[in-house]
Each structure stands twice: as C-alpha cells, then as structure tokens.
Amino acid sequence: QTLVTVTLGDRLQNAADLCKTMGSLPFNDDYIELVRQLITNCSLTHLEQLHLKSLFFNP
C-alpha cells in the first residue's frame, strides 16, 4: 500500500481548479480535510482563523 501525502497547497489548488470548472466545491472528504487543515493551520493569525470559521460554519 502506498501512502500519499496531499499538502494544504495541493488541496487549495485542487479546490481552485474545481471552483473554476464546476462553480462550487463538492461536499466530500477532500472538502472536509481542506477546511480542517485551514482552520488548524498554526501559521494563520487568530483573526484569520475566526474569519475562516465564519465562512465555513455560519449559514
């Protein structure tokens, strides 16, 4: 079994490509992992993390 590591940058690029072609992102495991990695990214400031949370979790 081969272990494949997908970086945050890879996930962001894939998401951008999907948005260009489909107009939105499908709600799947890749989307969930992208959101999780963005929110837990320690290089973001607290304010940036709060902004991301508001984008993804507020209707």
TrEMBL record:
Protein source organism: Adineta ricciae
Name this protein carries in UniProt: Uncharacterized protein
